[in-house]
Amino acid sequence: MAASSEVAGNDGVRQPGGEVHAWLPGQNQTLCGLPLSRTRLRRFPHVSFDYSTTDQLTGADPVGRICPRCLAAAGGRGGRRR
């Protein structure tokens, strides 16, 4: 997963925040085609992109937006597709 910002989880591990995108380790771009270096997205190789089109975000979520193009490219559940 790649995201525009990061937050510290309850256990002190970095977690994605802001706008999140599907990203596969070893790639230089997200599944929707954004280059990581130019967009300054942070990489989170320890977090899987496990979202679906029916997920709803609330104000309590550190994630503000899920990229719809990445959702479509990941088949709706990026963590389960290989």
Structure characteristics:
82 residues, alpha+beta, 4-stranded mixed beta sheet, 2 helices, 12% helix
Describe it for me?
The structure is a single chain. The model is unreliable at 78-82 (pLDDT under 50). Helices cover 12% and strands 26% of the residues. The longest helix has 6 residues, at 68-73. The chain is of the alpha+beta class and 82 residues long. The chain has a four-stranded mixed sheet with strand order 3-1-2-4. The chain has one domain. The chain starts with a strand and ends in a 9-residue tail after the last helix. The chain has helices at residues 36-39, 68-73, and strands at residues 2-8, 14-21, 42-43, 63-66. The radius of gyration is 12 Å and the shape is globular.
Give me a quick take on this structure.
With 82 residues, this protein is an alpha+beta fold.
Largest beta-sheet characterization: 4 strands, mixed
Radius of gyration: 12 Å
End-to-end distance, in Å?
Answer: 14 Å
Fraction of helical residues: 10-25%
How would you sum up the global shape? globular
Poorly predicted runs are 78-82
Number of helices: 2
- Summarize the helix and strand pattern as letters: EEHEEH
Q: Which structural class do you get from the secondary structure elements?
A: alpha+beta
Number of strands: 4
Strand content: 25-35%
* Tally of structural domains: 1
**How would you write the strand order of the largest sheet?**
3-1-2-4
The overall pLDDT, averaged over residues, is: 87
Region (Disordered): 1-24
Summarize the topology.
Blueprint: E1 2-8, E2 14-21, H1 36-39, E3 42-43, E4 63-66, H2 68-73
Parallel strand pairs: 2-4
Antiparallel strand pairs: 1-2, 1-3
